[in-house]
Amino acid sequence: MDAAEFKEAATTTIDEIIAYFETLPARDVVSRVEPGYLRKLLPSTAPDEGESWPAIQRDVEAAILPGITHWSHPGFHAFFPCATSYPSILGELYSAALSGACFNWVCSPAVTELETVVLDWLARMLALPPCFLSTGPTRGGGVIQGSASEAVLTAMVAARDKYLRETVPADLLEGSDAREEAVMLKRSRMVALATTLTHSSAKKAALILGCRFRAVRVREEDGYALTREGLAAALTECRAQGLEPFFLTVTLGTTDVCSVDDFAGVAEALDEHVPAGQPGEVWVHVDAAYAGAALVCPEVQEATRIGLIGRFHSFDMNMHKWLLVNFDASCFFVRDREWLVQALSVNQAVYDNKASDGGLVTDYREWQIPLGRRFRSLKIWFVLRSYGVKGLQEYIRRTIKMGEDFAEALRARSDLFDIITGPSFALTVFRLAAKSEGASLEERNALTKKLYDAVNAMGKIWVTSTELDGRFAIRLMTGVRTTQKEHVDAAVKILVEVAEEVMRG
Ligand code: PLP
């Protein structure tokens, strides 16, 4: 493809992308293809001769789009959003053109420096305590990871390293057998803590690291949040079993119900265990993968008391969920970047360079698990500049308000629906109301499941489900950029009609 052909192909591609967004509401939300559909449509080997762009592009509509579930569809109320927007797409275009494996500053200074700048912008927008800024008092800073799962794994690696450094006797010589023995013994006792509503990525990180994992049960009466008492009991139990907690994931906006752990209570319980800043303290990672986006609004900063997380060690949120940047843009902040560098810096002669040796630059390869990295800050920069803080606040508030309107509509039909949690960060979790007082849990679960299946089968909206204390429940989220009030009203209408039918039996 030469430049002239690229120009023509890019023009038709942009036209098609615009048409895609404009015709989205007319499509079914979820792809209806059968497993293996694509193999039947494509040849079994790559073409010997290159093909023309129009031939390739035709197959996007014919073969690919039927297998796409439309995460930007206004009727997409499942999971959490996975955002995109025009400025973000433009960022990807430039990033693809300026392709490089920008692991060290010298590999493309702009890639590293823009990332540092925009993550400082973001930290300020979200009102994170200054310790998470690259210019803050504790040598903190942010780095873009591929996902919240990668972020929690990275945090856990750094936390393990920090804990071992602080607790294995310093007089054991580095590299000695005695030190290795002491480290291995300690590792066998170390445990990562989370809650029963923490995202599965925390457990997966522990699995990958081969360390113990304990989930503290969170209860409905506490709003499904980790409390001081719950954590204190777990710490006591660990101690009694000879285990050493070194890591805790707390969540701002759990996946199932968008609950927020009690940060003040967590800090108090931890201070009774090992006070902040003392050797062997528990590293606290704040997982705000979805709801962290809402911190752009001062009222959310206040309600969540986000300033309290200055006591904790790391924070992560996905701009690619609810902040209009497309996947992947997981923004991970640490209070002291040295914790990452000490755990993840492995030298190899081929990567030596004067700038790194001078110690004046950031080499993000030392803040992450992979070596190479893309120019992801560009799309963040474009989105922040195109929308501005006010534009993003407006969008978040609009989608939160739609969540409130949705919950209000369910409350108005309390003969049909029971809200279990929410609305919280544009997420409401509900089930079918009891048909009669005597309906068993199993009967109510079966009826709610019937409603859920029937609604999704229609193709107009997509909702997902969860299970809370044995109760099957439906989750409906209103955070997608294209969703407007009329779409939420339509979702309510569908739910009411189907629920009435299910109730009639
Ligand atoms: N944490 C929370 C609270 C989530 O809701 C999710 C996914 O929805 C994740 C972590 C994992 O996100 P990722 O796909 O970025 O790993």
Automatic annotation (TrEMBL):
Its cofactor is pyridoxal 5'-phosphate. InterPro entries: Aromatic_deC, PyrdxlP-dep_de-COase, PyrdxlP-dep_Trfase, PyrdxlP-dep_Trfase_major, PyrdxlP-dep_Trfase_small, Pyridoxal-P_BS. GO terms for cellular component: cytoplasm. GO terms for biological process: amino acid metabolic process; carboxylic acid metabolic process. The modification N6-(pyridoxal phosphate)lysine is found at K321. Belongs to the group II decarboxylase family. This is Aromatic-L-amino-acid decarboxylase-like protein. Keywords: Decarboxylase, Lyase, Pyridoxal phosphate. Gene3D superfamilies: Aspartate Aminotransferase, domain 1, dopa decarboxylase, N-terminal domain, Type I PLP-dependent aspartate aminotransferase-like (Major domain). It comes from Parathielavia hyrcaniae. Pfam families: Pyridoxal_deC. GO terms for molecular function: carboxy-lyase activity; pyridoxal phosphate binding.
